[in-house]
Design goal:
0% of the residues lie in helices and 48% in strands. It has 124 residues and is mostly beta strands. A hairpin with a 5-residue loop joins strand 10 and strand 11.
Length: 124
């Protein structure tokens, strides 16, 4: 499962994977990352960007598919912190198990949000 936390609020998404998208504040280019919860970490499986500029260049080895540069970073992270900005609008979060929604659907907008892989203890 993947957890979203903002201050005292915690939301557990009943899914093992999400895609997270946002628009760059200057270039207004769409950026998307796909994460899987694995072994207590967030595994960044794939990233894609619809163009380049202002620090959003695709790395070597990226391939252009359907108008987006795609690559596989293969990073494992303890947490991902999403900063809130009046210049970018809300993030879009798409769980594997449900429809895409703005991040503000789960937590109040205007605060930073931390994503983690959350573990749930089994009940006997």
């Amino acid at each position: 499962m993947i957890c979203l936390a903002s201050g005292p609020a915690l939301v557990m998404l009943l899914t093992g994977g999400i895609s997270l998208s946002w628009d760059h504040s200057v270039e207004k280019i769409r950026w998307t990352e796909y994460y899987r919860a694995e072994a207590g970490l967030l595994h960044l499986v794939e990233a894609r960007v619809q163009g380049s500029g202002a620090g959003m260049e695709a790395p070597p080895g990226a391939r252009l598919e359907q108008g987006s540069w795609r690559w596989r970073p293969d990073l494992r992270l303890e947490r991902v912190t999403l900063a809130s900005s009046e210049f970018t609008g809300d993030y879009t979060l798409c769980p594997d198990s449900g429809p895409c929604r703005p991040l503000g659907h789960w937590l109040p907008a205007g605060h930073s949000v931390t994503l983690t892989a959350c573990e749930v203890a089994e009940v006997d």
